[in-house]
Amino acid sequence: MGHRKGNVTCYRVTAEVSSPSANNGSVKEFQQEIQLISLPVFQFGIFYTSDLEINPRNNLTILGPVHSNGNIYIEPHQSSLVFKNSVTSAQNIYHHKHPEDPLVRQWGRIRNDSTSKSRINSLVLPIGLVKDRSEFRSISEIPPENEDPFSARGLQRYYNKADLILILNDEGNRAFSGAHDDISINIPWTLIEISEAKPGKGKPEKGKRSGFLDSDVQFFDKREYSTVRAVEINLEDFLKSHKSLSAALGHPLRTLYIADLRKSKAGFQSGVRLINGQSLPKYGLTIATLNPIYIQGDYNRGKGIKPASIAADSVTLLSKNWEDDHNTLGLDQRRADSTVINAAIITGTVPTGNGHYSGGVENAVRLLENWRYRSLTIKGSLAVLFDSELAISPWGIVPGIYSPPVRNFIWNEDFEEIKHLPPSTPELYSYASSFRI
Predict the structure, then answer these.
(1) CA–CA separation, 339 vs 55, rounded Å?
(2) Cα-based distances in Å from 437 to 18, 20, 33, 36
(3) Which residues are CB-contacts of 296 (< 8 A; sequence separation ≥ 6)?
(4) What mean pLDDT comes out for the span 266-292?
(5) What are the distances in angstroms from CA 82 to CA 74, 78, 115?
(6) Please, what is the Cα angle at 257 between 68 and 328, to 5 degrees?
(7) Strands (E), 102-199
(8) Beta strand extents in 240-374 (DSSP E only)
(9) Residue 160 to residues 256, 352, 424: CA-CA distances in angstroms?
(10) What is residue 159's three-state secondary structure?
(11) Nearest 5°: phi and psi at 328?
């Protein structure tokens, strides 16, 4: 697993065994030494719990360490793929495509400037060291009422780690503090929802604007072929509210959890959209949801990059050139502009199978625009932990969804230091053991 800077806890178990048939009273001592290794997930440039596929059509350099709990399949198409750090797999590493990948490629070039190792231990959540990857999805879900928030599973949930929780449903909306405050602090929804007239309905009076959330924004997602009824978070307004919200909570607001549980009509889909996210709070920000997330425009690109992460059912990037009115038009009328995202990302995927390709690492973060001759820079870490359950349209089955950008995937090396990790970063666990007589 390379030289990740996690924590190692050592345990020694000693047992003395004597044989009932032995007349000399001899006793044998057995010792087992167990090392429990914990690693923040964002100390990997790329981490997959399932099979990892990386098959770029343009030259791509991967700077950070790469790990998969499944197999790794590598087949660049007429391009060069360079790994600058370790590549490890709990199963095998293959220089060909996934056996169920239907695409045909012309062979490119692979170069590994570091180490490559297969058949190493899986990295799992500390829930009894369960290896079922469906367990990873639980970190973004709302816990059942009878679950102890301080149980092994409860401690991993973003819901329980959150400083502020926003729940939207058809019976009403709520804002309240997280588990470390015993969910005891209620925040008036009037401080959350933007209280200004909608565009076209008159301008609000000066000084009357408050809140940072709009609960009824709609746009079309051509990949899902659904209208997204989004909860929109205006992070510029969130920054203005951050001081008062932190004061109400009694500590800095660093992790925000959102769940839109409203029922969707046919042809509609839930989602959370982040806008005006160029600047983030001083101590960083993690936004987690069980819904799909859409990030519009540059993110965390203001003065001084802050520790940031985003966790969702799926993550779709909309460039700063995105227009809601154009989202049903042809690809030539949905032209992107170069965009920069400084954040670690946890997302789901639609896996390869049933006649379609997952899209691979290169398309794990989804796009909906014509990015030709434009760049997309993501500096952070990418963790694909589970199968998407809401945004489930497979990659590539409908033409004209997007054209690829010049991709710059940069691992944020600051994440090697614990103090620079985003708030509420999940921990992965593995173990090593040895016997001695």
Answers:
(1) 23
(2) 13, 19, 11, 21
(3) 273, 274, 275, 318, 319, 320, 322
(4) 97
(5) 11, 13, 12
(6) 80
(7) 109-112, 116-117, 164-169, 172-177
(8) 255-260, 268-275, 285-289, 293-296, 308-311, 315-318, 339-349, 366-367
(9) 10, 32, 10
(10) helix
(11) -100, 0
Least confident range from 104-113, 200-209, 231-240: namely: 200-209
Identify the burial level of 334 via C-beta atoms within 10 angstroms of its C-beta, where 0-12 means exposed, 13-18 middle and 19 or more buried: buried
Strand pairing report for 80-83 and 7-18:
unpaired
Spatial CA neighbour of 401 closest among 375, 364, 371, 373: 371
> Which distant-in-sequence residues (6+ apart) come within 8 Å of 177 by Cβ?
163, 164, 165, 183, 184, 185, 186, 187, 249
Q: How far apart are CA 427 and CA 166, in angstroms?
A: 24
b (16+ CB within 10 A) / e for 90-103? beebbeebbeebee
SS3 of residue 187 by DSSP: coil
Q: What is the SS3 assignment for 396-427? A: CCCCCCCECCEEEEEECHHHHCHHHCCCCCCE
Query: In this structure, what token pair is assigned to residue 271?
Result: 């989602």
Token representation of residue 165: 């929780």
Token pair listed for 261:
């549980």
Task: Give me the residue label for tokens 């009357």.
Answer: 208
| pLDDT for position 31 | 65
Mean pLDDT of 291-296: 98
Q: Are strands 164-169 and 172-177 parallel, antiparallel or unpaired?
A: antiparallel
Q: Distance between CA atoms of 135 and 123, rounded to whole angstroms?
A: 12
Closest C-alpha to 294, from 219, 406, 358, 382 = 219
What is the separation, in whole angstroms, between the first and last Cα of the chain? 29
Phi, psi of 248 (to 5 degrees): -65, -35
Tell me the whole-structure pTM to 2 decimals.
Answer: 0.90
What are the φ/ψ torsions at residue 85 (nearest 5 degrees)?
-140, -175
Alpha helices in 8-162 (DSSP H): 134-137, 158-161
In degrees, rounded to 5, the angle at the alpha carbon of residue 87 between the alpha carbons of residues 34 and 59 is: 165
Those residues with Cβ within 8 angstroms of residue 291's Cβ, 6 or more apart along the chain or in another chain: 231, 258, 259, 260, 270, 271, 272, 312, 313, 390
Residue 285 CA to residue 35 CA, distance in Å, equals 32
pLDDT at 200 over 50: no
